[in-house]
């Protein structure tokens, strides 16, 4: 496990960007209260999802409006048709952690890689 940040660094309804051994991660505090982590790049265009809007457990790409389910990575609307990698989040003692593999990189929990 690797510590990403404190929960207080991600107010409800916001996103922060993190780099985990060269992998861009968007850490999200959904308006539903949950914490999520997804690959910080839209599967439709190479833009940062961390600049998008949060609603419930979805994140909208700021450029073309595709929304991604933060639990599964699946897009819920065009133009994106491919899911983004999602990462398991563990909240412990006020901090957010992600599991990493032996190579130090986060391992997607939905099996999608980029």
Biggest pleated-sheet summary: 4 strands, antiparallel
Q: Residue ranges: pLDDT <50 for 5 or more in a row?
A: none
Number of helices: 0
Cα radius of gyration in angstroms: 13 Å
Write the element-wise H/E pattern from the N-terminal end onward: EEEEEEEEEE
- Name the beta content range: 35-45%
- β-strand number: 10
Overview of this protein structure:
With about 110 residues, the chain is mainly beta. It has no helices and ten strands. It has strands at about 1-5, 15-20, 25-30, 35-40, 55, 60, 65-70, 85, 90, 95-100. A four-stranded antiparallel beta sheet has the order 2-3-4-8, with no helix packed on it. Strands 1-10-9 form a three-stranded antiparallel beta sheet, with no helix packed on it. A three-stranded antiparallel beta sheet has the order 5-6-7, with no helix packed on it. The protein is globular. It starts with a strand and ends in a 16-residue tail after the last strand. The mean pLDDT is about 95.
């Amino acid at each position: 496990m690797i510590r990403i940040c404190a929960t207080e660094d991600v107010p409800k309804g916001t996103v922060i960007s993190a780099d985990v051994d060269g992998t861009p991660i968007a850490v999200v505090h959904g308006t539903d209260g949950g914490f999520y982590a997804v690959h910080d790049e839209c599967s439709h265009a190479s833009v940062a999802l961390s600049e998008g809007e949060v609603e419930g457990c979805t994140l909208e790409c700021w450029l073309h409006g595709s929304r991604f389910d933060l639990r599964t990575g699946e897009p819920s609307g065009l133009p994106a048709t491919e899911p983004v990698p999602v990462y398991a989040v563990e909240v412990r003692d006020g901090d957010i952690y992600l599991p990493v593999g032996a190579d130090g990189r986060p391992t997607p929990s939905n099996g999608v890689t980029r």
